[in-house]
Amino acid sequence: MKRNNRLFIIIVILLLSNSIFAQLSPGDLSNAHKDLEGLSNCTKCHVLGEKVYNSKCLECHSEIKTRIDDDEGYHSSSEVKGKECYDCHSEHHGRNFELIRFDQKSFNHDLTGYQLQGKHIKIECNSCHNSKFSSFTVERKNTFLGLNNRCISCHEDKHNETLGNECQTCHSTKSFKPADLFDHNKTKFVLKGAHVKVECFTCHKNIQSENTKIFRIQNFEKCIDCHEDVHRGKFGNNCLECHNEISFRNTVNLQRFDHSKTNFTLIGKHANIECSKCHKESYTVKIKHELCSDCHEDYHKGELVKNNFRDCSVCHTEQGFSPSLIGIIEHTKTRFELKGSHLAVPCINCHYKNDKWSFLFNDISCVACHENIHKNEISDKFFIENGCENCHNSDSWSVNNFDHSKTGFELIGTHLKTSCRNCHFKDKQGNNVQQFQGLPKDCEFCHEDQHFQQFRINGKTDCARCHGYFDWKPVNFNHSETDFPLDGAHINVSCEKCHPKKNLKTGVFVKYKYEEIKCKTCHE
Known about the structure:
Blueprint: H1 2-15, H2 18-24, H3 54-60, H4 62-69, H5 85-88, H6 125-128, H7 200-204, H8 275-278, H9 303-306, H10 328-331, H11 347-351, E1 352-353, E2 356-357, H12 420-424, E3 425-428, E4 431-434, H13 443-446, E5 456-457, E6 460-461, H14 495-498, E7 501-504, E8 507-510, H15 519-522
């Protein structure tokens, strides 16, 4: 009952004017807590009727609570742990009262968890404990919180984060220079031989700027990352195959030098050549050797280069210039692919003329090598660009590809099996005379008229009216279409009964045509 009365009285007091509060408050709050003035704010720090608990303080000062919970910092040390907050930070002593008061000179910094060593011992507290280095997003005055123990939280990283954040790996608190804790042998590049005596900035000088010293070298696996390659890549990138780290002048014996480790392996006749034949000036001067012509005179005077053969090695080997390696596959890379009988022709037949080798031909038509025996007998429409391919192929001259139907005389039946020469070549007084253009299409131009012109009409005999193209049998003949159709008993009479053979001085022939067709012509 008494407790309830007390609570009622306090509530009434809180509702009274500031003059009443002034009579109740023990004094003004400090500047840090001045926003908490007034009766309505008392319970933010005080528990009614009880003492001030640390939990109330830590509700606002969460940064300290976090460190206490993590058992870190000065407030977790043996000197502070177990104490009440107001034992060190009492209030209501006026606006200018210092809540944080201690002798900075005698303060044991070890209690914070960060032991001051080296030059840190002589530094003034406010050199580190100021808003410049504080991690608080809201500036707070008169606080020693907000710092961490990483070097880069106070010191500028002169290495621009290229060596990480653990400065103590190389430096001590005595002095940044020299980096007396650094051990080069713990890096990926252990110093050996002459490297031990080299000043640091001899290697690291090229990657420094005015304000930043970057010691991490990205490329150092190969000697040429730092050293000039006086051989200009001729012996590869592994200098240790010939040199060591004691001195560049310690080289292998040239008599034992393995030339295969260079970009030019000595094989064939090259293996027996004296070194000085190629290395005329110096072994450090790079010799151009990409092409055979860099050392050897071009026997072909550039002809093959123009014909897409870039180097002698396409045709020749180090074993000797002869024989050539050029073959069928390589010849397909030229404008003239070898086919048919051309595959069996020796190279010398085409490429060696007038005691001179020649490989570049402007004219690759058939008549460039072969005589045109037809002269002007074949018209230009069948002899395009001097090419014989319309009739012949490269397998054999006797095989032809010609489409005879384009001439207006289509080959049918036995004509297909007949040799071209039978029609187009005639023996005249022991000479073969050819005829292609203007050759008549009449049957009797090639075939003898066995009927002694009995069927000639208007000066021409059309054999196809009776005969086919497969044999001489009159498969097309129809007696019903003549002036004497067969009927009655005539149907069974053999042809010879009416068409007997006649003997004349010019020869024997079958009588097919009669001057008049009457019964008495055959019957008595």
